[in-house]
Amino acid sequence: MNELIQNSDTLSAVKDTVVSAMESANGEIPDLQFKISNISTDSLVLTVLGYTIVFLALLFLFITFVNVTRLLNYKIKKKLQSTGKEKEETETIDLSGEVTAAISTALILHFREIHDFESTIITIKKVQKPYSPWSSKIYGLRQYPGKR
Amino acid sequence: MDAILRELIDGFNIFIQYTGFANLTIGHFLMLIVGCIFISLGIIKEYEPLLLVPIGFGVLLGNIPFLETAGMQIGIYEEGSVLNYLYFGVLKGIYPPLIFLGIGAMTDFSTLLSNPKLMLLGAAAQIGIFLTFLAALALGFSTQQAAAIGIIGGADGPTAIFLSSKLAPELIGAIAIAAYSYMALVPVLQPPIIKLLTNKEERRIKMKPPRAVGKTEKILFPIVGLLLTTFISPGGLPLLGMLFFGNLLKESGVTRRLADTASKPLIDIVTILLGLTVGASTQATTFLTPQSILIFVLGAISFMIATAGGVIFAKAMNLFLKGDNKLNPMIGAAGVSAVPDSARVVQHLGLKEDKSNYLLMHAMAPNVSGVIGSAVAAGILLSFLTHIL
């Protein structure tokens, strides 16, 4: 494919444009050869530092939220203690994945059914009888020819 | 009569010069085939159709050959053309933060909050970004270009576009196409790596159901998250700011209309514009270069390293965790931020091993933390490298 690209006149012209764009942006043209020597010490430092910072950012977030949860639970505990209870009176139910999925689906189906407006007329439907000459009374009557 | 005939022939010749047939090159033809492949992958295989169909159609749109010297102002790279105006949102990095706003308004962080240690998996998977950065440098790319290529490993299209628009705008088309292609190919790329790094027993580990998360925690998360991450990495402010803002709109409960707009019409509009213009930016004359092909290869490597990084880190965490708290190492693969595809892949693999093992909710936690992680990484690279420009 490279040969095809190189052979095309239009593409070679535009290749020059791309290369010049790259040159203007960075002053370098990739030579597409794998050389470890191309990696500078600065880049290595950036890699190590960058990855560590990403890790630290999420580690801080983790530590913060572990403590936020503890803090919120502590408040609940305090409240319960003031009312004379040691623990929140909730039963821990261990449900399997299937049961949880079934309950969730049932709840979703139930809540989808709920709506604001509902027609109060359920059974009475307006019966429509469109006109048909086959049932027309006029054809059932004797008709005399009129005098003109 | 002769003069009229000559004029007619001249007119016909001019018409021929302006047609696509006269300006067709092998490059255009190849790109039109690529566009058709993208569209068929989206429609037939249903691989990320919301992305691949607009991108694929954009590839067709951008590769209809025309006389570029005529100055008709129709090509995406021609100043004043409609496509050029729409492409402005990509070039200036406007669309990615808007996409992040929508993602924030759609994302439920409660699985992450119920088990915050899973945040570390999102961080671990970002190793792909940094190792590919080094590989790109070794291949002779400039530092800025290498950083923009490395971010493909974050598996986050908007983040990749955002960073390349700032650091290496000349590579934006190739990087965006690579990032979105690999996001769409998550179901193909990730399972072999996951299977290679885990054994049957590990893949069958059942994790403790996530606990219910209170409203206060959910509201606090976007605020605290924004303050913490952007103080550490202000470069990621446009992305992280919009992500957490969108999430606050959702979780506050009082701005439902805004959250609905951000998560539905707004993100749909931006996805259409982004997909179409990114696709159209692959105009054969500027896109088909050896560098673009190399970017694709590096992107794939980056993505694989990221997946492996997440899985290996989950296994390492298991060494310190006991009993119920053990992690199914497959969820580490979801640390790449292709939301929710990676999590879905983990769920499928989990169900294949054990029909009662539902990992989706557990995998969503590293998946969303991967979004935060890749935005933080982008911010760091941006702040380190901007002053070199």
Word description of this protein:
The complex is a heterodimer of chains A (148) and B (389). With 148 residues, chain A is mainly α. Among the domains of chain A are: 1-32, no CATH class; 38-87. Chain A contains four helices and no strands. Chain A has helices at 2-7, 9-26, 41-82, 97-113. The longest helix of chain A has 42 residues, at 41-82. Chain A is elongated, with a radius of gyration of 40 Å. The relative contact order of chain A is 0.03. With 389 residues, chain B is mostly helical. Chain B folds into two domains: 1-67, no CATH class; 89-388, no CATH class. Chain B has helices at 2-18, 20-23, 26-43, 49-62, 82-91, 95-106, 110-114, 119-124, 127-138, 143-150, 157-167, 172-184, 186-197, 200-203, 215-232, 237-252, 256-280, 284-287, 290-318, 341-353, 360-385. The N and C termini of chain B lie far apart (64 Å). The mean pLDDT of chain B is 90. Chains A and B meet through helix 1, helix 2, helix 3 and helix 4 of A and helix 3, helix 8, helix 9, helix 10 and helix 15 of B.
* Main sheet summary of chain A: none
Query: pLDDT average of chain A, as an integer?
Result: 72
Structural class of the secondary structure composition of chain A? mainly alpha
Proportion in helices of chain B: over 70%
Please bin the fraction of helical residues of chain A.
55-70%
Instruction: Give the structural class of chain B.
Output: mainly alpha
Give me the Rg of chain A, rounded.
40 Å
From the spread of the alpha carbons, the general shape of chain A counts as: elongated
Instruction: Provide the domain count of chain B.
Output: 2
Task: Profile the largest sheet of chain B.
Answer: none
Number of strands of chain A: 0
Strand segment tally of chain B: 0
Compute the gyration radius of chain B: what is it?
A: 23 Å
End-to-end C-alpha gap of chain A: 95 Å
Which word captures the global form of chain B? elongated
Largest interface here, residues on each chain? A-B, 57 and 63 residues
Per DSSP, what share of the residues of chain B sits in E-state strands of 2 or more residues?
A: under 5%
Order of helices and strands of chain B: HHHHHHHHHHHHHHHHHHHHH
Uncertain segments of chain A are 1-29
- The unreliable regions of chain B are none
